[in-house]
User: Fold this.
Amino acid sequence: MAQGEYKVADISLADFGRREISLAEVEMPGLMSCREEFGGLVAGLKGARVSGSLHMTIQTAVLIETLTELGADVRWCSCNVFSTQDHAAAAIARDSAAVFAWKGESLEEYWECTLLALTFTKDDGSGTGPDIIVDDGGDMTLMIHEGHKAEIEYAKDKTLPDPASTDNAELKCVYRIIARELPKDPKRWQKLVTRCHGVSEETTTGVHRLYQMEKEGKLLLAAINVNDSVTKSKFDNLYGCRHSLPDGINRATDVMIAGKRVLICGFGDVGKGCAQAMKAAGAIVYVTEIDPICALQAAMEGFPVVRVSTVISSIDIVITATGNVGIITLDLMSKMKNNSIVGNIGHFDNEIEIEKIQKATKRINIKPQVDRFVFPDGHGIIILAEGRLLNLSCATGHPSFVMSASFTNQTLAQVGGGCTSDNVYIC
Ligand SMILES: NC(=O)c1ccc[n+]([C@@H]2O[C@H](COP(=O)([O-])OP(=O)(O)OC[C@H]3O[C@@H](n4cnc5c(N)ncnc54)[C@H](O)[C@@H]3O)[C@@H](O)[C@H]2O)c1
Assistant:
């Protein structure tokens, strides 16, 4: 047990975290049944090293403690710089597992935490890596693949990855860390790939990344697609976002949603939940879609399907839920009304052109995760969580009950993943 090893905001929050974890356990019957049904230690997980990269919330705390109760040795980081609930991280760090996560990490810190979660204290003869991985969005998987690629290059001619070779701020951090660590152990990532049974991936975008890597023949690990399990995507993505989108908007801005014009970009599982929530709150809801079936579904639900460019100047709140990039551009944002709100519930910070608006406007921080960006003509827009998941950054993500369904899939995947070595499953 890697107990006592942690980097969290404030370990004295552990009692508060523990009290909320005990409330969440009652609302997470799936996870609690796993503990009961598997009756303590599970062959596949007993002594298994599990590394997780998934929002360090109260609900995730119940997942971690399910894995530790089934016998796993767990190390954890968050998959989002803003989503950690510090009291949850403190309780887990004190009581159950090694945790490296706090709310408001810098990008550098985020990737250092990912490295720490992947690095077990002792080399057990097969290296310091994990036996199984829980990933959400694919960042942990990305670091392993980039590390492995770098080792192959390094073995040829001592070339190290160059942070200056990319404009991507995240990749710069990854390259910097890998270059720093590589000379210390030039086989670290290869040993990890050899020992690791696989990764269970939580979300749509992470799964897309995995399929892409598999198609290109680059996927080095067996992978379990947890997202496409019906009891994950048709519950968490839909009903979870239906709950946590208004929660995020309310906590961030307290603006009256009723009567406002809301644009939901993407009408997949997440978009459907968002559109329902905004309609229920009394908003006039528009949808954009590129998939004809999803567009038709939106129309059948009574939502006008529009182009962003034709409605943007009359919209009060725009929410991206596509998992795609460059949905709300700087040009579109410049046409929005004064104090209109822009938020993303899809993935990472790529759906909204954050870097460009930061360069083109004056940023006024209203409070953590809420900024007003003022254009040269004096009008401004409010962007939530710098374009990162607003439900996990401005609020606390999905409620326990829906996360119980998602994380029961994760637990089953981990139990299965611990017993196998070279299969690719859909959970
Ligand atoms: N914030 C959360 O709590 C949370 C929870 C689950 C999933 N997610 C993330 O949300 C995103 C969406 O997930 P999903 O399960 O709804 O995926 P999905 O594939 O079911 O839906 C995405 C939809 O967006 C549409 N789309 C893609 N590009 C578009 C564009 N340019 N304009 C308009 N529509 C476009 C697609 O056609 C699709 O229907 C993913 O990135 C996923 O990882 C977030």
User: Anything to note?
Assistant: Residues 145 and 220 are 7 Å apart (CA to CA).
